[in-house]
Structure formats: structure tokens, C-alpha cells
Design goal:
This protein has helices at 23-40, 57-66, 98-114, 135-138, 155-180, 218-230, and strands at residues 2-7, 17-18, 21-22, 44-47, 71-78, 88-92, 119-124, 144-151, 197-200, 206-209. By secondary structure, the chain is an alpha/beta fold. The chain is globular, with a radius of gyration of 18 Å.
């Protein structure tokens, strides 16, 4: 199995903005976690971008088409002039079958379990035009979905996003695995090992923290972190 993951926007296309916060940065952070979670579950992934670069919509969908993907997920954040607008929603093709709609509903249900300000439901077509479609749904071959994960214009949604980023990624992957008929494997943090620094565990035992590398290039560090997470380890960059 292979899943196409699309972090919305990038490079000169910042997407929605609030102050110094940009949609392109939020979607890339989430996409990397989604990628690691899929790969931990034994599902191959392909990303439209892994850094802050501009990628045209055509190049994004062409990548999906030529890789014979089983699923396509595009990650976005919403925005509105009214700062009270909030919540999560999924967008499907205007002619999406019932199975796609159920998939979209499952993603929203899993996100609700984590905690969201509002479930805005599954939507079809294009904002303001139910007979048109977003390119990520129109021009991809596999079952596709665009997820609008909270409003960047809403402070509470931003707070939830930052607090629940890992859990949101797991919720998305869990629902997608269910749709694909694949086994979802929980991310179980490592609880022991060998190393030079120690901490006291919650039950009073000693826990050992392991450092596995140091890099001058942040991208190399992020790659190793994602590989460790894909194997079920708790990993972070300091």
C-alpha cells in the first residue's frame, strides 16, 4: 500500500496567515508526523514536499498519479475574517461515493476523540460551488480527501493544533488504516534502553535516555527522528 501525503502550500505560497504563523509551516509539521505514523503501520508514503518549497498543484497531483497510490490525503488549515469561526472539516470530490464520505466522517470522529472546537462535517465540491472540485480531489486517481484542521484565524484552534499535533496525526492515520483495511499500530514510546543520562520513571524505576546522533544539517536530524518514530520509538530533536 502507498499513501500520497500533501502538506498544503509551501515556499512563496504561505497559505493562511495569522501574524508570524503560516499555514505552510503547520501543514508540513503535521505531514511529517502523518508520514511516520503510516510507515510505522507498514504503509509506504510519498510526500509532495518535505521542506518549505513551492510545488505547483499539477506537480503535486502528477506525483500521485504516477505512483499508483491507494489513498491521497491533503493537509490544510482554514481561515476566516470572523475570528470566531472554528473547527475541523474534510472535503471530498463532488461525486464522492458513500464509502469516501464514511472515510471522511471517520477521520473527523477520530479527531473529535482527541479534541477539536467543532466538527464541521464532510463537505463535497468546492467552497461556494458544490459542482466544482479542489485540484487535490479532482486530479488525483486514488480515493482522496482534503483535511482542514482548524482555523489559523482562531486562537483556540491554534492552541489545540499545537497541543494535539501528534495525536491529530495518529487520529488521521488510524481512520485511514481502517478505510484501507490495514492494521493500525499504536505509537508506543520506548520505556527503557541504555545510555548516559537517566530519569526517574513514573513508578519510581530508572529510565535511560539514548542519544542516537548529532547533525549539523537539521533535515538529516528530522529524517532520523522520523525513521525512529516509524519504528515505534519516542524521538525528538533538541
Amino acid at each position: 500500500m502507498k499513501v500520497w501525503i500533501d502538506p498544503g502550500h509551501g515556499g512563496s505560497a504561505s497559505g493562511a496567515v495569522k501574524g508570524s504563523r503560516m499555514e505552510k509551516d503547520d501543514t508540513l509539521k503535521l505531514a511529517k508526523l502523518v508520514k511516520a505514523a503510516f510507515e510505522r503501520c507498514g504503509i509506504n508514503t510519498i510526500m509532495t514536499r518535505t521542506t518549505d518549497v513551492f510545488v505547483s498543484l499539477k506537480d503535486r497531483t502528477d506525483l500521485e498519479n504516477k505512483n499508483n497510490c491507494d489513498l491521497a490525503v491533503s493537509l490544510h488549515r482554514n481561515s476566516a475574517a470572523d475570528s470566531s469561526a472554528c473547527g475541523v472539516e474534510t472535503w471530498m470530490h463532488s461525486k464522492a461515493p458513500a464509502s469516501y464520505i464514511k472515510w471522511g466522517e471517520d477521520v473527523l470522529k477520530e479527531l473529535e476523540k482527541v479534541g477539536v472546537s467543532k466538527n464541521r462535517g464532510v463537505k463535497k465540491g468546492f467552497t461556494g460551488d458544490a459542482n466544482s472540485d479542489y485540484a487535490v480531489n479532482r486530479d488525483t486517481k486514488s480515493p482522496s480527501m482534503m483535511i482542514e484542521l482548524g482555523f489559523i484565524s482562531n486562537d483556540k484552534d491554534n492552541g489545540d493544533y499545537d497541543k494535539n499535533l501528534n495525536a491529530y496525526s495518529e487520529a488521521i492515520v488510524k481512520a485511514c488504516c481502517n478505510y484501507l483495511g490495514a492494521k493500525y499500530t499504536e505509537n508506543k514510546p520506548a520505556t527503557s534502553g541504555t545510555g548516559s543520562t537517566t530519569n526517574t520513571g513514573t513508578n519510581g524505576g530508572t529510565l535511560y535516555r539514548v542519544q542516537v546522533g548529532a547533525f549539523e544539517n537539521k533535515e538529516n536530524a528530522e529524517k532520523l527522528r522520523d525513521e525512529l518514530k516509524a519504528k515505534g520509538y519516542s524521538a525528538f530533536i533538541s
